[in-house]
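Field reference: sequence -> structure
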Amino acid sequence: MGETDLCMQEYLRDKSRFADLFNGVFFSGRAVVRPEELSEASEKYAEGAAGHRSLRVRDVKMNLYGGASLRILAVENQSRVDYIMPLRCMEYDVFEYRKQIGQIKRENKNEAQAGRRKLRAEERLCGVRRSDRLSPVYTICLYHGEEEWDGPMSLREMMDFGEEEDGLKELFADYPLRLFCVNRQQNFDEFHTDLKELFRALNCRGNRDKMKRLMTEEASYAHLSGETAELLSVMLNMPRLWEDRERYMKKQGEKEEYDMCWAMREWMEEERNEGIQQGIQQGKAEGIREKQAIIIRNMLARGFSDEDICALAECDLKTVEEIRGKA
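Structure field:
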Protein backbone atom coordinates (compact mmCIF):
# COMPACT_ATOMS: atom_id res chain seq x y z
CA MET A 1 0.00 0.00 0.00
CA GLY A 2 1.38 3.41 -0.99
CA GLU A 3 1.83 6.48 1.20
CA THR A 4 -1.25 8.24 -0.21
CA ASP A 5 -3.44 5.19 0.51
CA LEU A 6 -2.16 4.97 4.09
CA CYS A 7 -2.69 8.69 4.67
CA MET A 8 -6.21 8.57 3.25
CA GLN A 9 -6.96 5.51 5.34
CA GLU A 10 -6.00 7.32 8.54
CA TYR A 11 -7.89 10.43 7.43
CA LEU A 12 -11.15 8.50 7.00
CA ARG A 13 -10.97 7.02 10.50
CA ASP A 14 -12.52 10.30 11.60
CA LYS A 15 -16.20 9.41 12.09
CA SER A 16 -17.54 12.70 10.73
CA ARG A 17 -15.60 12.29 7.47
CA PHE A 18 -16.48 8.60 7.21
CA ALA A 19 -20.20 9.38 7.63
CA ASP A 20 -19.90 12.28 5.17
CA LEU A 21 -18.37 9.98 2.54
CA PHE A 22 -21.23 7.47 2.76
CA ASN A 23 -23.87 10.19 2.84
CA GLY A 24 -22.32 11.93 -0.16
CA VAL A 25 -21.89 8.77 -2.25
CA PHE A 26 -25.13 6.95 -1.35
CA PHE A 27 -27.61 9.64 -0.26
CA SER A 28 -26.68 12.82 -2.19
CA GLY A 29 -25.50 14.47 1.01
CA ARG A 30 -28.52 13.73 3.23
CA ALA A 31 -27.48 12.97 6.83
CA VAL A 32 -28.59 9.31 6.88
CA VAL A 33 -25.38 7.95 8.44
CA ARG A 34 -24.63 9.83 11.66
CA PRO A 35 -21.14 9.97 13.24
CA GLU A 36 -22.47 9.33 16.73
CA GLU A 37 -23.93 6.00 15.54
CA LEU A 38 -20.57 4.75 14.26
CA SER A 39 -17.92 2.72 16.06
CA GLU A 40 -14.46 1.79 14.78
CA ALA A 41 -14.27 -1.86 13.68
CA SER A 42 -11.27 -2.12 11.31
CA GLU A 43 -9.61 -5.54 11.46
CA LYS A 44 -7.68 -8.24 9.66
CA TYR A 45 -9.30 -11.34 8.15
CA ALA A 46 -7.47 -14.68 8.28
CA GLU A 47 -7.92 -17.13 5.42
CA GLY A 48 -6.55 -20.50 4.40
CA ALA A 49 -5.93 -23.79 6.20
CA ALA A 50 -3.98 -24.18 9.42
CA GLY A 51 -0.29 -23.53 8.85
CA HIS A 52 -1.03 -21.71 5.59
CA ARG A 53 -3.08 -18.76 6.78
CA SER A 54 -2.74 -15.29 5.32
CA LEU A 55 -4.20 -11.98 6.44
CA ARG A 56 -6.33 -9.55 4.51
CA VAL A 57 -6.77 -6.08 5.94
CA ARG A 58 -9.80 -3.85 5.57
CA ASP A 59 -8.72 -0.25 4.99
CA VAL A 60 -11.44 1.32 7.14
CA LYS A 61 -14.47 -0.44 8.62
CA MET A 62 -17.08 0.87 11.04
CA ASN A 63 -20.19 -0.54 12.66
CA LEU A 64 -23.36 1.51 12.25
CA TYR A 65 -25.89 1.05 15.06
CA GLY A 66 -29.37 2.32 14.26
CA GLY A 67 -31.89 1.27 16.89
CA ALA A 68 -31.60 -2.48 17.37
CA SER A 69 -30.01 -3.12 13.97
CA LEU A 70 -26.36 -3.26 12.94
CA ARG A 71 -24.94 -2.40 9.55
CA ILE A 72 -21.29 -2.73 8.58
CA LEU A 73 -19.76 0.03 6.44
CA ALA A 74 -16.32 -0.22 4.85
CA VAL A 75 -14.06 1.80 2.55
CA GLU A 76 -11.29 0.48 0.31
CA ASN A 77 -8.84 3.20 -0.78
CA GLN A 78 -7.26 3.04 -4.22
CA SER A 79 -4.64 5.35 -5.68
CA ARG A 80 -4.14 3.01 -8.67
CA VAL A 81 -6.54 1.16 -10.94
CA ASP A 82 -7.04 -2.46 -9.84
CA TYR A 83 -8.45 -4.78 -12.50
CA ILE A 84 -9.76 -7.29 -9.95
CA MET A 85 -11.36 -4.74 -7.62
CA PRO A 86 -14.94 -6.13 -7.87
CA LEU A 87 -13.63 -9.54 -6.81
CA ARG A 88 -11.53 -8.05 -4.00
CA CYS A 89 -14.49 -6.16 -2.54
CA MET A 90 -16.69 -9.23 -2.85
CA GLU A 91 -14.06 -11.28 -1.00
CA TYR A 92 -13.89 -8.73 1.82
CA ASP A 93 -17.67 -8.78 2.16
CA VAL A 94 -17.74 -12.60 2.13
CA PHE A 95 -15.05 -12.71 4.84
CA GLU A 96 -17.27 -10.47 6.95
CA TYR A 97 -20.33 -12.69 6.44
CA ARG A 98 -18.27 -15.81 7.22
CA LYS A 99 -17.04 -14.18 10.42
CA GLN A 100 -20.65 -13.46 11.44
CA ILE A 101 -21.68 -17.05 10.68
CA GLY A 102 -18.82 -18.33 12.84
CA GLN A 103 -19.93 -16.15 15.73
CA ILE A 104 -23.55 -17.27 15.36
CA LYS A 105 -22.49 -20.93 15.35
CA ARG A 106 -20.45 -20.49 18.52
CA GLU A 107 -23.29 -18.73 20.32
CA ASN A 108 -25.83 -21.37 19.26
CA LYS A 109 -23.52 -24.19 20.34
CA ASN A 110 -22.92 -22.60 23.74
CA GLU A 111 -26.64 -22.07 24.29
CA ALA A 112 -27.44 -25.66 23.27
CA GLN A 113 -24.75 -27.07 25.59
CA ALA A 114 -26.06 -24.95 28.45
CA GLY A 115 -29.56 -26.31 27.79
CA ARG A 116 -31.08 -22.88 27.16
CA ARG A 117 -32.06 -23.32 23.49
CA LYS A 118 -31.80 -26.60 21.68
CA LEU A 119 -31.21 -26.81 17.94
CA ARG A 120 -33.55 -28.70 15.63
CA ALA A 121 -32.02 -31.45 13.50
CA GLU A 122 -31.73 -29.20 10.43
CA GLU A 123 -30.20 -26.42 12.53
CA ARG A 124 -27.62 -28.75 14.11
CA LEU A 125 -26.44 -29.70 10.62
CA CYS A 126 -25.27 -26.16 9.78
CA GLY A 127 -25.11 -24.69 13.27
CA VAL A 128 -27.43 -21.82 12.34
CA ARG A 129 -31.04 -21.39 13.45
CA ARG A 130 -33.82 -20.69 10.99
CA SER A 131 -34.40 -17.30 12.68
CA ASP A 132 -30.73 -16.20 12.65
CA ARG A 133 -29.88 -13.23 10.44
CA LEU A 134 -26.68 -11.55 9.26
CA SER A 135 -25.84 -7.85 9.45
CA PRO A 136 -25.57 -6.34 5.94
CA VAL A 137 -22.18 -5.12 4.66
CA TYR A 138 -21.73 -2.04 2.43
CA THR A 139 -18.34 -1.36 0.82
CA ILE A 140 -17.27 1.76 -1.09
CA CYS A 141 -14.16 1.71 -3.27
CA LEU A 142 -12.76 5.24 -3.10
CA TYR A 143 -10.50 5.85 -6.10
CA HIS A 144 -8.37 9.00 -5.68
CA GLY A 145 -5.73 8.33 -8.35
CA GLU A 146 -4.90 10.66 -11.22
CA GLU A 147 -5.37 8.20 -14.10
CA GLU A 148 -8.83 7.53 -15.51
CA TRP A 149 -10.43 4.41 -14.02
CA ASP A 150 -10.63 1.88 -16.85
CA GLY A 151 -11.11 -1.20 -14.67
CA PRO A 152 -14.25 -3.34 -14.32
CA MET A 153 -17.26 -1.97 -12.48
CA SER A 154 -18.74 -5.34 -11.60
CA LEU A 155 -17.90 -9.02 -11.39
CA ARG A 156 -19.77 -9.52 -14.68
CA GLU A 157 -17.26 -7.32 -16.49
CA MET A 158 -14.47 -9.68 -15.42
CA MET A 159 -16.13 -12.70 -17.04
CA ASP A 160 -15.56 -14.31 -20.45
CA PHE A 161 -19.00 -15.53 -21.51
CA GLY A 162 -17.90 -16.57 -24.99
CA GLU A 163 -19.61 -15.78 -28.28
CA GLU A 164 -22.55 -18.17 -28.04
CA GLU A 165 -25.97 -16.81 -27.07
CA ASP A 166 -27.01 -19.66 -24.79
CA GLY A 167 -28.91 -17.57 -22.23
CA LEU A 168 -26.48 -18.32 -19.41
CA LYS A 169 -25.00 -14.81 -19.37
CA GLU A 170 -28.30 -13.35 -18.21
CA LEU A 171 -28.45 -15.85 -15.35
CA PHE A 172 -25.04 -14.88 -13.99
CA ALA A 173 -25.15 -13.71 -10.35
CA ASP A 174 -23.39 -10.36 -10.59
CA TYR A 175 -21.63 -8.42 -7.83
CA PRO A 176 -21.39 -4.68 -8.52
CA LEU A 177 -18.47 -2.49 -7.44
CA ARG A 178 -19.61 0.60 -5.55
CA LEU A 179 -16.93 2.86 -7.00
CA PHE A 180 -16.46 6.58 -6.33
CA CYS A 181 -13.85 8.18 -8.61
CA VAL A 182 -12.76 11.61 -7.38
CA ASN A 183 -11.45 12.59 -10.82
CA ARG A 184 -14.81 11.91 -12.51
CA GLN A 185 -16.83 14.36 -10.41
CA GLN A 186 -17.86 17.85 -11.51
CA ASN A 187 -18.75 19.26 -8.09
CA PHE A 188 -18.68 18.09 -4.50
CA ASP A 189 -21.60 19.97 -2.94
CA GLU A 190 -22.96 16.71 -1.49
CA PHE A 191 -20.07 16.65 1.00
CA HIS A 192 -20.23 18.79 4.15
CA THR A 193 -16.93 18.15 5.93
CA ASP A 194 -13.40 18.99 4.73
CA LEU A 195 -13.75 16.05 2.32
CA LYS A 196 -15.21 18.68 0.00
CA GLU A 197 -12.02 20.77 -0.03
CA LEU A 198 -9.84 17.65 -0.29
CA PHE A 199 -11.74 16.21 -3.27
CA ARG A 200 -11.95 19.55 -5.08
CA ALA A 201 -8.18 20.01 -4.82
CA LEU A 202 -7.46 16.43 -5.95
CA ASN A 203 -9.73 16.98 -8.92
CA CYS A 204 -7.44 19.82 -10.09
CA ARG A 205 -4.19 17.82 -10.14
CA GLY A 206 -4.09 17.74 -13.94
CA ASN A 207 -4.51 21.53 -14.16
CA ARG A 208 -1.94 23.44 -12.11
CA ASP A 209 -3.41 26.88 -12.84
CA LYS A 210 -6.90 25.74 -11.86
CA MET A 211 -5.57 24.31 -8.60
CA LYS A 212 -3.73 27.56 -7.77
CA ARG A 213 -6.89 29.60 -8.42
CA LEU A 214 -8.95 27.26 -6.26
CA MET A 215 -6.62 27.44 -3.28
CA THR A 216 -5.96 31.18 -3.45
CA GLU A 217 -9.49 32.40 -4.21
CA GLU A 218 -11.78 30.02 -2.28
CA ALA A 219 -12.21 31.24 1.30
CA SER A 220 -12.69 27.73 2.71
CA TYR A 221 -9.02 26.92 1.99
CA ALA A 222 -8.02 29.57 4.52
CA HIS A 223 -9.67 27.50 7.28
CA LEU A 224 -8.49 23.92 6.73
CA SER A 225 -7.90 21.43 9.50
CA GLY A 226 -4.29 20.40 10.04
CA GLU A 227 -5.13 16.83 8.95
CA THR A 228 -6.53 18.05 5.62
CA ALA A 229 -3.57 20.35 4.95
CA GLU A 230 -1.11 17.55 5.71
CA LEU A 231 -2.94 15.07 3.47
CA LEU A 232 -3.10 17.59 0.62
CA SER A 233 0.63 18.23 0.84
CA VAL A 234 1.22 14.47 0.47
CA MET A 235 -1.32 13.79 -2.26
CA LEU A 236 -0.36 16.87 -4.29
CA ASN A 237 3.36 16.10 -3.80
CA MET A 238 3.96 19.57 -2.33
CA PRO A 239 5.77 18.81 0.96
CA ARG A 240 6.84 22.43 1.50
CA LEU A 241 3.23 23.40 2.21
CA TRP A 242 3.32 21.23 5.33
CA GLU A 243 6.98 21.59 6.30
CA ASP A 244 6.37 25.31 7.00
CA ARG A 245 3.06 24.62 8.79
CA GLU A 246 3.93 26.67 11.89
CA ARG A 247 3.92 29.74 9.67
CA TYR A 248 0.43 29.12 8.31
CA MET A 249 -1.34 27.73 11.40
CA LYS A 250 -3.62 30.10 13.31
CA LYS A 251 -5.95 29.83 16.28
CA GLN A 252 -9.68 29.97 15.62
CA GLY A 253 -11.37 29.73 18.98
CA GLU A 254 -10.31 26.45 20.56
CA LYS A 255 -8.96 24.84 17.40
CA GLU A 256 -6.12 25.47 14.99
CA GLU A 257 -6.71 26.15 11.31
CA TYR A 258 -4.32 25.99 8.41
CA ASP A 259 -4.38 28.87 5.91
CA MET A 260 -3.73 27.13 2.60
CA CYS A 261 -4.55 30.34 0.69
CA TRP A 262 -1.65 32.16 2.37
CA ALA A 263 0.67 29.17 2.00
CA MET A 264 -0.13 28.77 -1.70
CA ARG A 265 0.32 32.48 -2.47
CA GLU A 266 3.74 32.52 -0.80
CA TRP A 267 4.74 29.30 -2.51
CA MET A 268 3.71 30.76 -5.90
CA GLU A 269 5.72 33.94 -5.20
CA GLU A 270 8.79 31.93 -4.21
CA GLU A 271 8.39 29.77 -7.32
CA ARG A 272 8.16 32.91 -9.50
CA ASN A 273 11.25 34.45 -7.88
CA GLU A 274 13.19 31.21 -8.27
CA GLY A 275 12.21 31.17 -11.95
CA ILE A 276 13.47 34.73 -12.38
CA GLN A 277 16.78 33.91 -10.67
CA GLN A 278 17.20 30.80 -12.79
CA GLY A 279 16.59 32.88 -15.90
CA ILE A 280 19.20 35.42 -14.81
CA GLN A 281 21.75 32.71 -14.04
CA GLN A 282 21.00 30.99 -17.32
CA GLY A 283 21.50 34.27 -19.19
CA LYS A 284 24.82 34.85 -17.44
CA ALA A 285 25.97 31.33 -18.23
CA GLU A 286 24.99 31.73 -21.88
CA GLY A 287 26.92 35.02 -22.04
CA ILE A 288 30.04 33.38 -20.59
CA ARG A 289 29.79 30.50 -23.06
CA GLU A 290 29.44 32.92 -25.98
CA LYS A 291 32.54 34.89 -24.89
CA GLN A 292 34.44 31.64 -24.51
CA ALA A 293 33.42 30.57 -28.01
CA ILE A 294 34.70 33.89 -29.48
CA ILE A 295 38.06 33.41 -27.77
CA ILE A 296 38.34 29.82 -29.05
CA ARG A 297 37.46 30.84 -32.62
CA ASN A 298 40.06 33.65 -32.59
CA MET A 299 42.78 31.35 -31.25
CA LEU A 300 41.92 28.67 -33.85
CA ALA A 301 42.20 31.32 -36.57
CA ARG A 302 45.67 32.28 -35.31
CA GLY A 303 46.91 28.69 -35.29
CA PHE A 304 47.15 28.07 -31.52
CA SER A 305 47.49 24.44 -30.49
CA ASP A 306 44.52 22.65 -28.91
CA GLU A 307 46.49 22.31 -25.68
CA ASP A 308 47.12 26.07 -25.46
CA ILE A 309 43.48 26.88 -26.32
CA CYS A 310 42.20 24.59 -23.54
CA ALA A 311 44.55 26.19 -21.04
CA LEU A 312 43.89 29.84 -21.96
CA ALA A 313 40.11 29.55 -22.63
CA GLU A 314 39.59 27.24 -19.62
CA CYS A 315 37.68 24.64 -21.58
CA ASP A 316 37.99 20.97 -22.53
CA LEU A 317 39.09 19.46 -25.86
CA LYS A 318 35.51 18.47 -26.73
CA THR A 319 34.45 22.16 -26.69
CA VAL A 320 37.34 23.12 -28.96
CA GLU A 321 36.42 20.36 -31.44
CA GLU A 322 32.75 21.40 -31.46
CA ILE A 323 33.62 25.03 -32.28
CA ARG A 324 36.15 23.94 -34.89
CA GLY A 325 33.41 21.87 -36.54
CA LYS A 326 31.08 24.87 -36.65
CA ALA A 327 33.70 27.21 -38.13
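Note: Residues 90 and 200 are 29 Å apart (CA to CA).
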